[in-house]
Amino acid sequence: MIKTKKNLDKMTDNEKVDYLNETVLPEEGSIPAYILADPSIYELEHKNVFMKTWVFIGHESEIPNKNDYMLRDVAGYSVIISRTADNEIKAFYNMCTHRGMKLCRADKGNNASFVCSYHGFNFKNNGDLIGVPLQKDIYGDTLDKSKLGLIEVRIESYKGLLFGTWNEEAEPLTYFLGDFKWYLDILVGRADMEVVGPPQRFILHSNWKIGADNFVGDSYHTMVTHGSIAKLGMVPSATYSKMGYQIHTKNGHGLNLGMPNPDFAFPEDLKSEYKSNLSNEQYEVLANLKNMIGNIFPNLSFLISHTKIKDQLISNTSIRLWKPIDNGKMEVIAWFLVEKNAPEEWKKRSRESFILTFSPSGIFEQDDTEVFTDITQAATGHMPVMKELTYNYTMGLHRKPVTDFAGPGIVYDDKFTEANQRNFYRYWLDLMKG
Ligand code: FES
Ligand code: FE
User: Is ligand 1 within 6 A of the CB of residue 133?
Assistant: First the structure.
């Protein structure tokens, strides 16, 4: 029997999990549309996915100096990320412990302490409460400041990527990333990398999973959705997106390596830096890379893209968060990353190539966001046909992974399979079960 969205609203969490088990069938290549649109799924997802797993909060290079700070959030709750006077990065729930006022209201800055705008409690950026207006007069000796420090949030980083979680029992980040680190080394560990400029932020009327799904495994759309870019000669051919590897590891992580590439699209001067940071096998991947597109579960996607501009091939590296902010709505936050030691002119051109391709005005971004919003809208209807709609994820079910690739994970030797999306939804479902 097909249960309607109305039934879902009235189900207990346990009944919802049973229903998800019946209808979300990654191994069969069948994913129901309601998981992109149903408000009760959105709520359960917040509780069982975003409150339980590691979520990306930023890059260490965004706060390079002592006392730098930035505001981010973990699963919708505002968090201050601070570099203390001891050069340690710490994160605190952005809430004054006196009466719950939001403590810091600026996006970014440099401050050794934060003064609450309600009654003026002053907190050092290591979380300690260091000042209370008129303390002696009004509290005498009764106020123990050491008990009123800010609430610390658990954060860990990998090669500059900072993640936070509210789950004290979450496995260490290094285990959560597991084998996927081999590929993250190529993305962000190949050289000393830095974020340039503030992240780009824009709001999309789309479910966040569509972005993650698109980056984790959908190379198939490229030749159609972005066909105009091939016609402009900025990418080699309409079918270039098939060549390479699709790879996934445990915990829903996955990526696509576009290979081979006859041209080296990274700064030549940095070859020795790359070689010193990567194994020979990782360097070979980098040297032959046409593009690299993937997703760290749940919602941090990344991209190394090569674009020919004015006859010159140039790569750009970016990471992007599909941050859910409401049912059917997300904020996209995209960071441009570049090799710190690259020539200034190369950095400038790389950033231009990022803005031209992936940014609110970028040619790839505009193509993709049309698709994301249309899919969300179609899944959101109240007609039975929309409630019962399932998507087809059967591509490549008949294929066997290869074993002769140098990197870890389950590897397919071209990118046109949906194995990565099936792996993504399998882990999503496992978490949804609580
Ligand atoms: Fe912050 Fe009172 S709520 S000082
Ligand atoms: Fe795309």
Answer: no
pLDDT in the model for residue 228:
83
Lowest mean pLDDT among 224-238, 279-293, 367-381: 224-238
Architecture of the CATH domain 178-432: Alpha-Beta Complex (3.90)
The string of DSSP codes covering 198-216 is SPEEEEESS-HHHHHHHHH
Predicted TM-score (pTM) of this structure: 0.95
Asked if the model's pLDDT at residue 389 lies above 80, the reply is yes
**Where exactly are the structural domains of the chain?**
55-165, 178-432
Contact, 102 vs 94, CB < 8 A? yes
DSSP strands (E only) in 288-431 = 291-296, 300-309, 312-326, 329-339, 390-392, 410-412
Our mutation pick for probing the ligand 1 site, out of 80, 95, 101, counting the most ligand atoms within 8 A of Cβ, is 101
CA distance 132 to 294: 48
The domain covering 55-165 belongs, at the CATH homologous superfamily level, to Rieske [2Fe-2S] iron-sulphur domain (2.102.10.10)
**DSSP codes joined into one string, 159-194:** TTEEEEES-TTSPPHHHHHGGGHHHHHHHHSSS-EE
Asked whether 243 lines ligand 1 (CB < 6 A), one says: no
Per residue in 29-72, pLDDT (tens digit) is: 999 999 999 999 999 999 999 999 999 999 999 999 999 999 99
Determine contact, residues 60/32, Cβ cutoff 8 Å: no
Nearest residue (CA) to ligand 1, atom 2: 119
Element (H, E) at 386: helix 384-387
pLDDT band at 214 (very low <50, low <70, confident <90, very high): very high
Q: Ligand 1 pocket, 118 CB below 6 A?
A: yes
For 330-378, write each residue's pLDDT tens digit: 999 999 999 999 999 999 999 999 998 888 888 888 899 999 999 999 9
Amino acid in the structure at residue 14: N
Determine if residue 209 is left, alpha or beta; phi over 0 gives left, psi from -120 to 50 gives alpha, anything else beta.
Answer: alpha
